[in-house]
Amino acid sequence: MVRLASLAVLSSLSGFALASGKWFDHVVTVFLENTDFDQAKTQAYWQSLAARGILLTQYGGVTHPSLPNYLAVAAGTTFGILDDAHYDINAIHIGDLLEAKNVTWKAYQEDYPGDFTYCFVADNTPAPLKLYRRKHNPFISFSNVNTNTSRCTSHIVNSKDLDADIANNAIPDYSFYIPNMINDGHDSNTLGNVSVMTNWLENFLEPKLNNSAFSNTLFVITFDESDVSNDEGNKGTNYVYTVLIGSAVKVANVADATQYTHFNLLATIEANWDLGSLGRNDSVVKNIIGLNGTALPNPYYNETLASLQSTNAGAANTVASFGITVLAVLAAAMLL
Fold first, then answer.
1. What GO annotations for molecular function exist for this entry (predicted)?
2. Which domain holds residue 227?
């Protein structure tokens, strides 16, 4: 593979896109679970994805366990959170930046119990399977979403809605897709065997790569974190297999060995639509994708949204380093 990190841009838009991007008009991020880079790279299907797109060989999660990694890609920080407990976070996130620029977005969650009438804020679906978990749904942790039924039901949806959106040529500009606990590998990866997750991904992704509804679309296939059992004490690299593929990717069989994390992915999405930044780690890291090989400047701090970020003195726990209040609803951390 040669080393390159650039995507060509087409001027065409899909039927539903409201905002043309610099590199892509749609982005679909698929977050899988708890798999080391070396575990994924042995799979023939993962190798085929790299052969058709850009493999980020040194892309990593930012910490362990799951929740802070999901928050990192949605908000540019972990808010100092070190567990998978329930939090109501009074802070702005990528959804706020997107809406300010009329860029449409949805989080598609497999087995999510909520619908267009109510916002599901509990931890999971019933035992024994518990296929949906709140810790894998970053947007439900933000109080400006989970206390606003209309906003929540419009943007956090069951994954079945994606089929209808595809059929209606109405996929949002920004999609965050979360498989259930079996399909994402969390509860199905055993002793390094990632075949269940890999088979799911192939069946999910392949039909979409050639679907006209995903014109000029970037698919980001990645993981929240490496296998925590192999990274005790956060001393390892936390590298995860990450591939950029789709109709917006005009190169193939490319490897980029630049150091990236979820913060870089967030910054790339912000730069694509000129959203500005959240003023956190997203504002100080480079973009993954450079236009014709030349990266754009870091996203500017979006001061017009700064007033949305406030504190709540009555909450239980305050993350002082960010001046953001976090209410711990569930004390017990669920790390596995």
1. hydrolase activity, acting on ester bonds
2. 6-328
